[in-house]
Amino acid sequence: MPKPETTSSPAAVSLPSRGLILVDLSTSWRHRSSPPVGIIRCEHEIARHFLAASPQNVIFGFFSEETQQYSEIPQDTVIQMITNSTSSGSSSSQEKELSDEQELNDPGYGKSFPKTFLAGLLFANYMVGRASGISKWRMKAATLAKQYVAGNYDVIDFESLTRIAKFWTASPTIDLRGPLGGLRMALVHSAPPPGSAPVQIDKIITILLPGVFWEGSKAKWLWRESSKRNISVKLLLFDLIPIVVRQFSESGAAQNFAACFHYLLWSCDHFFCISDSTARDLRRYADACGYPPVPESKAEVCRLGPARFVHDAGPDAVEGPRIPGSENLDPGKFVLFVSTIESRKNHDFAYHLWRRLAAKHDAKLFPLVFAGKLGWDTESLMKRISQDPVIGGRHIVHFDNVSDDQLRWLYANCAFTIFPSHYEGFGMTVAESLAFGKPCIASVGSSIEEAGQGLADHIDTLDGVAWLKKIEQYIFDFSALEDKSKAIKLRYKPYAWDEFTAPIVRHMLQSSGSMSGIGLNIPTRNLP
Length: 528
Fold this sequence. Notes:
The chain is about 45% helix and about 10% strand. The chain has 22 helices and 13 strands. It has helices spanning about 25-30, 40-55, 75-85, 95-105, 115-130, 135-150, 160-165, 175-180, 185, 220-230, 240-245, 250-265, 275-290, 310, 345-360, 380-385, 405-415, 430-435, 450, 465-475, 480-490, 495-510; strands at about 20-25, 60-65, 70, 205-210, 230-235, 270-275, 300, 335-340, 370, 395-400, 415-420, 440, 455-460. Strands 3-2-1-4-5-6-7 form a 7-stranded mixed β-sheet, with helices on both faces. α5 (about 115-130) runs antiparallel to α6. The longest helix has 20 residues, at about 115-130. The radius of gyration is 25 Å and the shape is globular. Residues about 5-15, about 90-110, about 170-175, about 180-185 and about 515-525 have low confidence and may be disordered.
């Protein structure tokens, strides 16, 4: 692929005040109110290690598409964000029932009409600026409105806000209904931290991109700024799934990924890959498409380990808290499949396995638990499962928005796990299962066998009969299940998070000229 044409810019200069590291936490900030997924966990662990190793040399940033610049996320805010994520979604069933009862009895419970009205005025101001084409006014108004909504999210009545918007739709050029309709998912999470200052990019010597890079114009911005200012860019690369197996990605997402990755392949001078498989995919793609070669020295493998909630699990993990609705699950008598529900993870294959097993064993069959949020292209599958008379609403159970504490209970109490994914950058579910001493029946290929360390049962998903036999063995032959569990507990050596983050932090500090506080086991300043 040809290198993008550079715009006219002054020669790169070396500023005496440079030397700071910018760590992009845009993904974590956008999803700060949701239970953490793999990418966010990685961002949090990298931030945790930087805060312990060399906080004076790092700035955490959020990239705004509207302003085309980074805003600083204060370190205290980062600590709070990491702390909140550990308990996200973990409220007890009693607390949830109380909240639901309050909202049911009083739909306006906890809402503020004055703040709702003010939010509407702010967005009206934004839309007037948008219709008038005054870019600076529009950008400032949009940022102010989003920050206000983010700061008052819990007391703003979004239904009333939508109704209020109807009063401002008289002009054919001003329509608030569209922007207001997406407030919950987009606008709240796209505002920079209130009161945050723009990052002085001239003080940055290197940038680490550890999260989502394939949305918006950030990748192009990084290429342009790094070229102009001689800034080093490093990328934490999870996988090339939208390129290597693009049939499992939305067409738009696959195109965006390739377009954004194009700029990063020209601007990045170092890649941190989470598996050997990802590193191979990176080198092959760069070679096949004519990008600058990526030698092994620039594709450093930093393997992931089980999530922190796994390492923190104690002997009481089997006691709870349980997920509301899991009362019918008997400890030790259900099978677990932890993953976002999407076509690449192959839940359809798991459904057909359990349908065949249910027809054969009926009430003797262990139920299969899907633990994960609904992802792309899942409506048809979930509808078939819910309406299947063989499954009957008994043999497959789904829990979404599962907290770390609840996920810990599921792992600790399941009989074993399955993971028939088509393709993975690493295969965190396999590692988590083994860390709990639970056998895992998993697919072959990509990085999944790396995660299994020779202790998972890897079976090709083209061999459905072998899957059925292994599942039946673990359900109906307790001694086989117990022997496998003992072997895992004896031999499995999970990677610690420090083994993942330390090489990244060390490289960033070395490349910026800051060598202090580098180590593998650094105190975490009381972070959770």
